[in-house]
Amino acid sequence: MSLNLRYTRLGLMTLFSLVLLLLNSDLRAAPISECAAIEGVFDVAISHDGQLVAATWWDEGVKLWDTDTGELKHTFSDLDGTVEIELSRDGSLLLASDRDVAILWDTQDGKKLHTFELNPSNTLNSTVYFTPDGKQAITGDFFGGILWDVASGKKLRSFPGAQDTSRGEIVRLSSDANRLLTIDADPRLVYIWDVESGEKLHTFSDVINGLFSLDNRYILTRSADHLSLWDADSFALIRTFDISGLLGLNDWMFSNDGKWLLTSIEARFDVWNIETGESWIRVKAAPWDNMYGILPDNQSALIPRPGSDRRLIDVWDIASRTVNYTIDLGSIDTMIVRSFDISDDGRYLLLGAAENEIPFDRTVSLWDIQTGTKIRQYC
């Protein structure tokens, strides 16, 4: 999932830990092995224990590497155009989806465990999640979400979204996996479901998108000219954020502690103060604005800098509204970020990026956020 902000998408979308990498001096000392460019990277992910790096390719399926050594452990090629991947919390399972099917693999021996059949009428993206205990998985597409039993591969229940693929959006799962959000963009409805019981808990009207905060205290919805913050238990309105005059919502995400909200909407980035509703930091959006996020320390934000011939990522100190330092990813003509993930300790950045605009060849690389240096590429 790309914090597009896979670290968002999707919301947004999950963060993964690389704490163990700090204990391995060889990782930082080893020379970078340059790779032949690999075509079509869609999504990247880091396992929670920091041992595995995964990436998806349009025509080569999913690749799984050892983070420390860069050794290719497995290639999973049973999907026709992989869109999104997710690693279970213990790193033992990998779930990947294309448009109408999701497949579950064992990361140790590479064995395919189950195939989950999705809605055959879905023509666009599908998304995937594991519950924190790894016992269940959720797949989502424009028709809603499906809860699966990981051990048996059986479908447990469905959560409706849109009635046809032109009117829906991707589902979102709360970080504790207790609630699911499905979206029907026309007639502009967002549904909140209890995952265990399948009960519909609430319907938000006249909204076109929705998001859970990472601490599960809030639900955020978008209307034409404002964002609305709701109490996740009572569904009472807390406050709104003015976005009048802006159209396309690229992405949005909460800080882990629920105090800050980062939005990328049309031509600008905003870091909002949740308590006051104030736009605390506002930056004009760069044309390549698909790499941004709030770091797990809840104090720093990654925001692309516009107006440069370099791909520059400014690391902002949120409280003081100042740029601490800048990460230089390369020339604006030779680096296009497609997807990324950030480790739970906020030290490492995994990029799925283009290294040439033509023919859009992609590489997967690991960067040290604090020093702005590239540590390793994965081939």
Number of DSSP E strands: 33
Low-confidence spans: 1-31, 164-168, 356-361
Radius of gyration: 20 Å
| Beta-strand proportion | over 45%
User: What fraction, in percent, of the residue positions are helical?
Assistant: under 10%
CATH topology of the domain at 78-333: Methylamine Dehydrogenase, Chain H
Question: How does the major sheet shape up?
Answer: 5 strands, antiparallel
* Structural class computed from helices and strand pairing: mainly beta
Q: What do the pLDDT scores average to?
A: 80
What general outline do the C-alpha atoms trace? globular
Number of helices: 1
CATH architecture type of the domain at 78-333: 7 Propeller
Regarding CATH, which class of the domain at 78-333? Mainly Beta
